[in-house]
Amino acid sequence: MENFVYTGMPARVVFGDGALARVGDELTRLGARRVLVITTPHQAADGRALAANLSAHDPSLYAGAVMHTPVDVTEQALEVVRERGVDCLVALGGGSTIGLAKAIALRTDLPQVAVPTTYAGSEMTPILGETRDGVKTTQKSMKVLPEVVIYDVGLTMTLPAGLSGTSGINAIAHCVEALYAQEANPIIAMLAEQGIAALGRALPGIALDPGDRAARSDAQYGAFLAGACLGAVGMALHHKLCHTIGGTFDLPHAETHTIVLPHALAYNAPAVPKAAATVAVALGVADAPGGLFDLAGKVGARRALRDIGMPESGIDRATDLALANPYWNPRPLERDGIRALIARAWAGEEPSVPAA
Q1: List of residues 6+ apart from 36 with CB closer than 8 A
Q2: Residue 243 pLDDT
Q3: Are residues 34 and 88 in contact, defined by beta-carbon separation less than 8 angstroms?
Q4: Rounded to an integer, what distance in angstroms lies between the CA atom of residue 278 and that of residue 195?
Q5: Which of 164, 163, 228, 233 is CA-nearest to residue 199?
Q6: Among 172, 216, 255, 343, which is 20 to 30 Å from 302 by CA?
């Protein structure tokens, strides 16, 4: 056994069918008296319904969360927090909503109850990505880690099959990079392999039958494990690329992760053969990058950055940004290799494993 360091994140997780009904109890446990329910505009009706069940906690609703957590939206939400005297945040939604709650918590230190409705996994992490003037940056702070996370499979049943697929592969990305993270350890490796396996078997099933409750529950469990991985260790090239490309070109978060992941793993595979082999075993395939590319096809996801709005002229800009202030990575970042990776992802080509 090799030496390792493992840091557990102190979040409380309530997992189960019907768990949404326990939000009020968790708010009482936190001592919350005046809560702000946060959603995207699309989920405003769900937010109002939840708020209606939290009357004992004097709820308000802010339904303005958007992708990539722009700072100006955070400032608007903070006005509501101040005007209403909010003492606790309830985030109902995916990464956009949970990201906004985190951004508010960073500035106020208010407690959060996260109620994820996708498989993004950010609810389990002390990581916040924010966008200012078109540039997305990330930071780590225990202030942004939600105090309570509530997983209710019922909230994912209406998640469109296409979004389920890309959101789930986004979660797989957390597990993949956790396997070769600088802080990688056997505890997280175990969670990562289980997370990849759960999502890998669940997502094609959801694509075939969006009403498959067992597959939905499996995917939600995998997303929980993926989030725990993301929160416990640092990430590498894949996440740097996705934050850079997504924030710069305002691309959809989950789809960007889905497209980039096979190519990022292909770039790193020669340096981390054990991690690549673990991914392949978890997916039940011979080749990990190819297996991830095929999985995207099985769930009906788009596999080219050009198909989600990135211009070809952006390949060189994305390369420059990826090489600026890079994350730690198990393989040195070489400009030609990174540019080739991005170009293949832009064109939707199959991943290519370069020589070590």
Answers
A1: 59, 60, 61, 62, 77, 80, 81, 84, 86, 88, 89, 90
A2: 87
A3: yes
A4: 12
A5: 164
A6: 216
Calpha distance 265→238 (Å, rounded): 8
What b/e sequence results for 102-129 when a residue is b if at least 16 CB atoms lie within 10 Å of its CB, and e otherwise?
Answer: bbbbbeeebbbbbbbbbbbbbbbbbbbb
Beta bridge partners of 352: none
The residue among 10, 8, 59, 26 whose CA lies nearest residue 150 is 26
Buried b (16+ CB within 10 A) or exposed e, 272-291: beebbebbbebbebebbbbb
Residue carrying the six token digits 């409750």: 213
- Per-residue DSSP letter, 157: T
Helix axis angle for 95-108 and 253-268, nearest 10°, is: 90
The pLDDT of residue 4 is: 84
* Positive or negative torsion for Cα 173, 257, 152, 38: positive
Query: Is-contact 171 121, C-beta < 8 A?
Result: yes
Q: Find out whether 129 and 95 touch, Cβ atoms under 8 Å.
A: no
3-state secondary structure of 348: coil
Rounded Cα gap, residues 164 and 170, in angstroms: 10
* pLDDT value at 133 more than 90: no
Packing angle of the helix pair 161-179, 288-298 (nearest 10 deg): 170
Backbone φ, ψ for residue 135 (5° rounding): -115, 125
DSSP letter for each residue of 102-153: HHHHHHH---EEEEESSS--GGG-SEEEEEETTEEEEEE-GGGS-SEEEE-G
Instruction: Name the DSSP class of 252.
Output: -
Question: Which residue(s) pair with 127 in the sheet?
Answer: 140
Q: Does residue 144 carry a pLDDT above 80?
A: yes
Question: Which one, of 166, 168, 167, 204, lies nearest residue 284 by Cα?
Answer: 204
For the whole model, what pTM was predicted?
0.89
